[in-house]
User: What shape does this take?
Amino acid sequence: MITIENLVKRYTQDNADFLAVDNVSMEVGKGEICVLLGPSGCGKTTTLKIINRLISPTSGKICIDGQDTGKFDVVALRRSIGYVIQQVGLFPNMTIEQNIGVVPRLLGWDASRIRRRAAELLEIVALDPAVFLKRYPKQLSGGQQQRVGVARALAADPPVMLMDEPFGAIDPINREAIQDEFLKIQRAVKKTIMFVSHDIDEAVKMADKIAIFRAGKLEQFDAPDRILSAPANEFVANFVGRDRALKRLRLLTAADALAPGFAPGAGRAPATLSATDDLRIVVSLLYTHGVNSLPCSDEAGQHVGYVTQQRIGELLGAARS
Ligand code: ADP
Ligand code: MG
Assistant: This one.
């Protein structure tokens, strides 16, 4: 668990003081992804770098699992925290295997253990070890380098990961794919992750919690569905966008939209929903079949009720402004 308490970072620019981080407090649970979201210059990177003490705070404190990071040995602290940045930062003169092995080497692992770990991590990020272990970074595409960056950060199995716009430089299509891949990895490894983004869609997709920053201040700290359905103020509402009802569709499932007491008319249903389908799929099926309702089954194939257009409308009503 990461606890941030009254964090402040003061800088001087053009002979005037300003707060890059302005009294920020939040708590991120073990195994959760917290996305720090906000426009450029709002203090996201500064907050991240204070966590691994690349920057020291003016005041306030950060605890990891209840222990004050200010009292850790800096080197030990950084080894226990994986760090991924947008400009991947792979060492150009080292092979992929050597790049992934940087921290394990510092930890004194022997060569065969490092090789096994590098191969295992390449498999995890969907790169064939037989092809990639001996290559150099410049022989890889941007997306592949980014995956190696993630593998390298995971190398020593740190409980905490800091990721600063890790997929920012990747084109939209590959970006979706690498986000999906990363979420799959996360379900297996369950790290506690602070993830910086300026993209609301990425945040909604990745986050258990979203922290929205503006000029160093934390404007809202909430689950994605709450950010979309109940933005705390005008700034958050504008930042998440007018189409936030649409964005919520991906967060809600057929099971959330079962209409109470709905009695279907005669005739066979053209399709059956599964309870875990997200509402984008549901809406597109309703639309494709030109119907107002569809039956829904659970994992065991048991009928659990009907999803209706009206019920979906009611659910989204909360998000209309
Ligand atoms: P973000 O990552 O959200 O884009 P940053 O955390 O990098 O923003 O920066 C927050 C603010 O602090 C910006 O206005 C930036 O110009 C300023 N800043 C960052 N580092 C320094 C520094 N070393 N000295 C003075 N100002 C800085
Ligand atoms: Mg930044």
Observations:
- Residues 44-45 surround magnesium ion (ligand 2) (CB under 6 Å).
- The first helix runs from residue 44 to 51.
- The two ends are 35 Å apart (CA to CA).
